[in-house]
């Protein structure tokens, strides 16, 4: 079921946009006092995937894996931002089942 709350969508999209965007999304998530648990689950889902994408983006610094990791990150970011902007929880291929945040 899609989420229609604009602040939740903003948090979801920001979580994929660089480490700074991820930090802002975490700050907004921690200060967000909405009572609806569905919004928190949606935000937590995208923040978790954003964290994994940001960690994978560190591989772009390694010369051997740099180009392949950069292309993979661009695809993962596009899928994540699309899911966040449309209000759906779309698992990103390859990393969708990795859960670093509880």
Structural class by secondary-structure content: mainly alpha
Distance between the termini: 21 Å
Radius of gyration, in Å, reads 13 Å
Strand fraction band? Answer: under 5%
Largest β sheet strand count, sense and barrel closure: none
Shape: elongated
Average the pLDDT over all residues and give the rounded result: 85
Number of DSSP strand runs: 0
Report the order of strands and helices: HHHH
Low-pLDDT runs: none
Helix count?
4
Give the helix proportion (percent range).
55-70%
Keywords:
elongated, 0% strand, 102 residues
Could you characterize what this model shows?
There is one protein chain. This protein has 102 residues and is mainly alpha-helical. Helices cover 64% and strands 0% of the residues. It has 4 helices and no strands. It has helices spanning 6-14, 18-31, 37-57, 66-86. The protein is elongated and about 45 Å long.
